[in-house]
Amino acid sequence: MNTEKTSTPASTTRRDFIKSSSAAVAASTLTGSVFAGTSPSAALQSSVFAAGSDEIRVGLVGCGGRGTGAAAQALAADKNARLVAMGDTFYDHLDKSYKNLKKNPVGEQVQVDADHKFVGFDSYQKVIDCVDVVLLTTPPHFRPMQLRAAIEAGKHVFAEKPVAVDAPGVRSVMETCKLAKEKNLSIVSGLCWRYHQGMRETFKQIHEGAVGDVMAIQCSYNTRGLWMFKREPEWSDMEWQMRNWLYFTWLSGDFNTEQHVHSLDKMAWTMNDQTPISCSGTGGRQTRTGKEYGHIYDHFAIVYEYPNGVKGFSRCRQQDGCAVDVSDHVFGTKGRVDVFKHRIYDPKGEKTWQFRDKSKNMYQVEHDEFFESIRSGNPINNGDYMTKSTMLAIMGRMAAYTGKSITWDEAMNSQEDLTPASYEWGPMPVPPVAMPGITAFK
């Protein structure tokens, strides 16, 4: 995990600090000389003593199940964190999330007034404007824009995976992560396995040569179907797609990007985040063929090739009635690794290493380390691996959709923008029925 310290920008002033740190800090009590030249993170840490308050204001953008969980974990990570603002496209999502959080053990830390419950496409900006820390858990399509807005405003961010649905979005996030380093702001990724102790120890063994030189990687995310909300008569096309965002490539990136990115991130982790040369693969719709499932695929099989000849074999499936296999395996010259079981075997099949300790909940660890980085003034920036792993997934989708071998450079430099042509803020517009590369599914 990248936890490198970033340089303090000389241009950071007391005005920047007041804008980006806690409102609980009484600005009138601060003197310019105390905070001039400090980073937002260090300033927040200093404000604990300068103003007699160490409250961190947290805002949630995207109030679905994952967002609700992230908010609870954020509050559990810091006893003086307060959830003070929430935003979602739909009020029913926000209201359900708020009620569930109030019932949570951290319920007393949920202090969202009625005028800080924001609804609509622009709700993210309203949340950003009144908090210190932003949790971004909306559909992936919105991540690049919302992440940029939060970092430009000087806020620390937890960003769920994936961080984009197309190459222009990935490139945008890369630039935003550079800006976060300049501003000394933390960006913690929702690629949660990087925060799992058993996984950390297992990959440490791989990188220290426990299985010799890596020769091949196999990752599988074969699972059953997920939720789907039946379309109501009063829903516009946009509302229907937004409420069923998983099934529309412009919103989710397809399920190999939205879900399978976890497996591909472990492939990337194995390779020390070295990027592949190219990939090729297949995919399609076999069981989810009805209009209610939008236009994404229900299975993919992608092969990635790396500069040293290593091949990564990736497969994922969302089909009911089929065998479930969520696993990762690494094969080396001295043995093999069962990644999920945290075990290493020699060529004869004898176990040579196993992680036996109990790992803390990785979702909680993400936020524990996130808030500790804010308090300590030592920001975490997961930008490198979260953008590369997202691009691995997008690259695989491009190969399956087109039936072609796609190079990393072609994928990274792609100009394919999945944003619907009519997309704008305000009244909900209607995106195209078929996105580029999948016109067969009208």
Descriptive notes:
This protein has helices at 14-20, 32-35, 40-50, 65-77, 91-103, 123-128, 143-152, 167-183, 197-207, 237-243, 249-252, 255-258, 261-270, 362-376, 383-402, 408-412, and strands spanning 56-61, 81-88, 117-119, 133-136, 156-159, 187-189, 214-223, 278-284, 299-305, 311-318, 325-332, 335-338, 343-345, 351-354, 406-407. The relative contact order is 0.15. β12 and β13 form a beta hairpin. Helix content is 36%, strand content 18%. It is globular, with a radius of gyration of 22 Å. The strands form two sheets. It has a nine-stranded mixed sheet. Strands 3-2-1-4-5-6 form a six-stranded parallel sheet, sandwiched between helices. It is α/β, with parallel strands linked by helices and 442 residues long. The protein contains 16 helices and 15 strands.
Radius of gyration: 22 Å
Report the β-strand fraction as a percent range.
Answer: 15-25%
Summarize the amount of helix as a percent range. Answer: 25-40%
- Weakly predicted, low-confidence segments: 1-43, 45-52, 424-442
Any descriptors?
globular, nine-stranded mixed beta sheet, alpha/beta, 15 strands, six-stranded parallel beta sheet, disordered N terminus, 442 residues, single chain, disordered C terminus
